[in-house]
Each structure stands twice: as structure tokens, then as C-alpha cells.
Write a structure and sequence with these properties.
Length: about 325
């Protein structure tokens, strides 16, 4: 069983004086998962990642990697993990190839494997054309590739990437993201980021931290599902060629139980009227709306939930009341 669980953090805490940088964090990561670590600045992401990789000692709690306690075998654990630290330190005056050779020696890879591993890793990270360049001459995107290559060189099962796309331009972000996606097909990956579409594109699970604590642990779809249902778009028209009066229709729709607000959003030249309905406290209005439309004799042209955004979920969880919401927990109403 434990081999299926790649990482297990139990009541993991880190205190700096009176600051609780990480506070009683408990979670598991299954083999093969690509986990996105989200949270505002200072939430405790980097501190957590450093404890996971064994580069920072927890104040309390423990981390197990494939069932082994990190403090019991720090070197063995480091062989299983590839780590791209935040603002990865690289040697600017070193050539890419020399830096990676140096990394291979530091990692104590058998000498016979240096060549083949270097080739596979550089191929994968798209570094073949810059092997002879000094790291200091590289663009940020290429520097980040070097950082990733450094983390991948010893072929670890688990990659821990602290903001792998920070500071990159949109094209480079997509390139690195695709690379991570590709890597995620065969390895367990934990990455932190401030870019929300990134986790949606790359990760199958999201942890959101706030002030050192876990405030959400769910799939991207699960997080969004909890947001949706709250706004609904509705397009209706009258029977035949009659025109509907938007003020009258609004008045009728207001009678729907659970409605928070209603807005007319009809587009120019569109048939009938279009409204945006917001529900109170994540209620699903679809059934009540359908019944109302039928009762009034209107024709329903369209009804769909507004796409909820991860931004909303993030803001609600990190600026709101901080009520923990677990995928496995019971459904709760946010009144
Ligand atoms: N060495 C340290 N000494 C004292 N406090 C620290 C230290 N490292 C981190 N902290 C504090 O711990 C908290 C968590 O910091 P951490 O760097 O883990 O956050 P983060 O989520 O990675 O933030 P960011 O998104 O800005 O990278 C912050 O309040 C930070 O100031
Ligand atoms: Mg950080």
C-alpha cells in the first residue's frame, strides 16, 4: 500500500519564532499524481516543499517518501526526489554541459551513466542547442530548463518544483508547462505556482494553503464545481412573434426562491432576452427557473451555468473565512 503513496505529510509544522509558517499540515500524494500547490505570498508553500525534500527540518510532524521517514534516510530520499528550488541558484559562468556534468557528480551518478543520462535529460528539456553556452547568457526560459534538467538528471520518481514558471513570458510559460505535463505522465510531480490557469492545465489535484494551513484539497473540477451553480445564464423569448417586456420578466423571475440578484445581459440582435441570475449560497436554481419559464409560457432558448473560475475559488478560500473544505468532507453550505 505504502508504495502507492509517494508522499505522506503528517501534522507537519514549521515555526520561526512566533510565526507559524506551516501549521499542522497533513496530506498524501499518490504515485503518478500531478499536484498543484497554491496559496498567496507567505502561505507556506516554499517552507512545505523544503520540508518535503528534507532541506528544512520540521518543528513538528514528519514526512514519509515512499514509506520512509525523511529524517531516517535523508540521502536515500534525495536520490528519489528532483527539486527545483524557488529562484534556483545556477552558476552563471559555467557552461550548461559543465553544470550538468557537475550535477551528475554531486548526485553521485555512476560515471558510466553520466553521458546517457545527460543526453536523455537535455533532449527532453530542449537543451541540446545550448549545451556550450554559459548559463549567464541564457534567457530565463532556458535557465528554467537547465533548472529542470538539474532536477531530472538522476531520474527521480518524484519532482518538487517551486514556481517553475515564475518570471517567464507567456510563450515560455506554455513551453515549460508542456514539459511538466509530459514529465507528469511518468512521474509524481508537486509544483507551486501563482498562475491559476497553470494548475488547471497541468494538475489533477490542487492543494490551497493560506497562512500555513490547508484550506482546500480537491481536483480542479471539484473546486470549480463548488463554485458553479451560483450563476446561471438564461435566454428566453415569447411564443410566436410577441416581444417580452424585460421589466415584467425580471419581476417574475425575482419570485424564484433562492435568487440573489438578476441582471439583463441581452446582446444586440439576439432573439428574446438574456439574463444572468446569481443564486444565494451556492444554490442550484435550474429546476426552479425551468418551472417558472414553463408556468409563464415562455420559450427557453438557453440555460447554462456560468463557467466558474479558479480565481474565484482561490479568492474565496484565501480571503474569505478560511473554512476548510476537503474533497472527502461533507457538503457544506457557505452562508
Ligand atoms: N528563514 C525564515 N525565517 C523567518 N521566517 C521565514 C523564513 N522562511 C519563511 N519565513 C516565513 O514563513 C512564512 C511562509 O513563507 P514561504 O516562503 O513558505 O511562503 P510561500 O507560500 O512560499 O510564499 P511565496 O508565494 O511568496 O513564495 C512567511 O511568513 C515567511 O515570512
Ligand atoms: Mg515560495
Amino acid at each position: 500500500m505504502s508504495e502507492q503513496i509517494m508522499i505522506e505529510a503528517s501534522a507537519l509544522s514549521k515555526r520561526y519564532g512566533d510565526t507559524r509558517a506551516v501549521d499542522l499540515l497533513t496530506f498524501q500524494v499518490q504515485r503518478g499524481e500531478v499536484l498543484g500547490f497554491l496559496g498567496p505570498n507567505g502561505a507556506g508553500k516554499t517552507t512545505t516543499m523544503r520540508m518535503l525534500t528534507g532541506t528544512l527540518r520540521p518543528s513538528e510532524g514528519e514526512v514519509r517518501v515512499a514509506g520512509i521517514r525523511v529524517q531516517d534516510d535523508p540521502l536515500g530520499i534525495r536520490r528519489r526526489i528532483g527539486y527545483l528550488p524557488e529562484n534556483a541558484p545556477l552558476y552563471d559562468e559555467m557552461m550548461v554541459v559543465d553544470f550538468l556534468r557537475f550535477t551528475a557528480r554531486m548526485r553521485e551518478l555512476p560515471v558510466a551513466e553520466h553521458g546517457p543520462r545527460l543526453k536523455v535529460t537535455c533532449d527532453r528539456c530542449g537543451l541540446m542547442d545550448v549545451l556550450g553556452k554559459d548559463i549567464g547568457q541564457l534567457s530565463k526560459g532556458y535557465r528554467q530548463r537547465v533548472g529542470l534538467a538539474q532536477a531530472l538528471l538522476h531520474d527521480p520518481d518524484l519532482l518538487i518544483l517551486d514556481e517553475p514558471t515564475s518570471g517567464l513570458d507567456p510563450n515560455q510559460i506554455v513551453e515549460i508547462r508542456n514539459l511538466i505535463k509530459d514529465i507528469g505522465k511518468e512521474k509524481t510531480v508537486i509544483l507551486s505556482t501563482h498562475i491559476l490557469p497553470e494548475v488547471q492545465a497541468t494538475c489533477n489535484r490542487i492543494l490551497i494553503m493560506n497562512e500555513g494551513r490547508l484550506v482546500a484539497d480537491d481536483s480542479p473540477e471539484g473546486l470549480l464545481a463548488r463554485q458553479s451553480g451560483s450563476t446561471l445564464q438564461l435566454q428566453i423569448k415569447a411564443e410566436g412573434t410577441q416581444e417580452l417586456d424585460s421589466a415584467i420578466v425580471r419581476g417574475k423571475l425575482r419570485e424564484i426562491d433562492g435568487l440573489q440578484s438578476i441582471e439583463v445581459v441581452s446582446a444586440e440582435g439576439e432573439t428574446g432576452l438574456r439574463f444572468k441570475l446569481a443564486a444565494k449560497a451556492e444554490r442550484d436554481l435550474r429546476e426552479a427557473v425551468f418551472r417558472k419559464v414553463v408556468a409563464e409560457g415562455w420559450i427557453l432558448l438557453d440555460m447554462h451555468r456560468e463557467a466558474a473560475s479558479l480565481e474565484e475559488a482561490f479568492r474565496r478560500l484565501t480571503l474569505g473565512d478560511g473554512t476548510p473544505t476537503q474533497a472527502s468532507g461533507e457538503e457544506q453550505d457557505h452562508e
